[in-house]
Amino acid sequence: MRPTGVIFAALDCDADVIEDWNRWYDLEHTPPNLLLDGVVQSRRYVAPPELHDARIAAEGSPFAGGRSTFLTIYTLLGDPVAAFQGMTGLRDVLVAAGRMEFPADKKAVRDGDVFATVTATGDGAIRLPADEVAFVGHTGIVVTQRRGGAEAARARAGRLVALDGVHGVWSLASGTRDGLELDIVFVEGDEAAVAARLRAAEPHDAATEVVVDAPYRLIDPLRYPWAAQIRASDLPAKVGG
């Protein structure tokens, strides 16, 4: 079975419940979603203040103004839309079972969508075939949501694997928003430095409208060493702020 797409969610929580919310996500929210047909993997990511500083986001997007500190990416097999519908239906089951009781006013989903695979490119130095890119080891990702100039943008994404710190690139197309595409660049090392290196070596084509170009760090489940740093920063302390 080859990976066919992702469910992609950008999220926030109030600063005073970072550890509690992340524990709830790791222990109560992720496991039932992984039991759904077509969902094979879940990975979560965080953008501490220094990664927010390294972010490019269009004004008014869900990623601007210090929002979308967290990402969840579920890797899918089979029909991506069917998996997305299954996850939507699961929410009602979890609510009925009392498993969605984390205070709604302390968390927010900023962006959520299902994306289907367009192409993937693996690092030739590790002989990584396209079908394995979704599963390659990494310490972080650089994500780009973009519109327009698809051919040039996909070609750019494929060239990124030649750069230091990049192990693979996965490009996908939205199943709900026509013309929106997503690049996930799997990286190792300083995520902000890698993001800057990608932009310098391979600037986005002028025909590409960049919604967001942002580095994120892979979350080690049940370990949140960046929580105090986020709380002490000038990032929004309240999801409604």
Note down, in words, how this protein is organized:
- The protein is of the alpha+beta class.
- It has 6 helices and 9 strands; from the N terminus they run E-H-E-H-E-E-H-E-E-H-E-E-H-E-H.
- An 8-stranded antiparallel β-barrel has the order 1-4-2-9-6-8-7-5, surrounded by 4 helices.
- A hairpin with a 5-residue loop joins strand 7 and strand 8.
- It is globular.
- The mean pLDDT is 96.
- Strand pairing plus helix content: what structural class? alpha+beta
Tell me the strand percentage band: 25-35%
How is the quaternary structure best described?
Answer: single chain
Specify the overall morphology.
globular
Low-confidence stretches: none
Q: What is the helical fraction, as a range of percent? A: 25-40%
Q: What's the order of the H and E elements?
A: EHEHEEHEEHEEHEH
* Average pLDDT level: 96
Rg = 17 Å
Strand order of the largest sheet: 1-4-2-9-6-8-7-5
What characterizes the major β-sheet? Answer: 8 strands, antiparallel, barrel
- Count up the helices: 6
Query: How many beta-strand segments?
Result: 9
- Whole-Å distance between the termini? 43 Å
